[in-house]
Design brief:
- By secondary structure, the protein is mostly helical.
- Helix content is 86%, strand content 0%.
- The protein contains four helices and no strands.
- Helix 1 runs antiparallel to helix 2, helix 2 packs antiparallel against helix 3 and helix 3 packs antiparallel against helix 4.
- The radius of gyration is 18 Å and the shape is elongated.
- The N and C termini lie far apart (51 Å).
């Protein structure tokens, strides 16, 4: 519901309201990149470039970490399976 409201604010050009709603979403789900991405875009829309880029950088770091975690899981799974087959 909160995400829908924030999205509606974005579509209607109500950037300040969308920023407040995305901030609330981030407080509820700190590891969800969607809220950071959308809040960053909203900041850029109102000319708050440093804040917008900070959110976008945060999303980039989150995705890098997820990639690292996926690679580690894959490696662990492969090593575990290989160990079981021997």
């Amino acid at each position: 519901m909160l995400l829908d409201s924030a999205g509606a604010c974005v579509r209607e050009g109500r950037s300040l309201q969308s920023i407040a709603l995305f901030r609330e979403l981030i407080g509820l789900a700190t590891q969800d990149p969607t809220a950071y991405l959308n809040r960053g875009s909203s900041y850029l829309q109102i000319g708050q470039f440093e804040l917008g880029l900070a959110d976008l950088d945060h999303v980039s770091l989150m995705r890098q970490r997820l990639g690292t975690i996926a690679a580690l899981r894959s490696s662990l799974s492969t090593n575990t399976i290989a160990g079981l087959l021997i």
